[in-house]
Amino acid sequence: MFPLSSSDQEQSALTHIWAHLSFDLQTRVIGLLAQLALNAVVVRQENWSEREEARHVDPAAHPQNPS
């Protein structure tokens, strides 16, 4: 049998920890992870919107200093 890699050991430890959390704590963790994912999507969308807006700005409307 092959020894477990460190990532396999971490996965095993996380599974063990998760199994010993109460249902309420598991629910709270899932809710917090969902909120984190939603925030990441919102920030990404805001950044994308700002880049798109910057692409459509008329350069003639904002003259740059030639120096």
Description:
This protein is an all-alpha fold and 67 residues long. The chain has helices at 6-19, 23-55.
Largest sheet: none
Order of helices and strands: HH
Helix content: over 70%
Average residue-wise pLDDT: 83
| First and last CA, distance | 70 Å
What percent strand?
A: under 5%
- Compute the number of helices: 2
Question: Could you say which overall geometry the principal axes of the C-alpha atoms support?
Answer: elongated
Number of strands: 0
Q: Tell me the radius of gyration.
A: 24 Å
Poorly predicted spans: none
Output the structural class.
Answer: mainly alpha
Secondary structure topology:
Elements: H1 6-19, H2 23-55
What's this entry about, in short?
With 67 residues, this protein is mostly helical.
List the keywords:
0% strand, 2 helices, 67 residues, mainly alpha, single chain
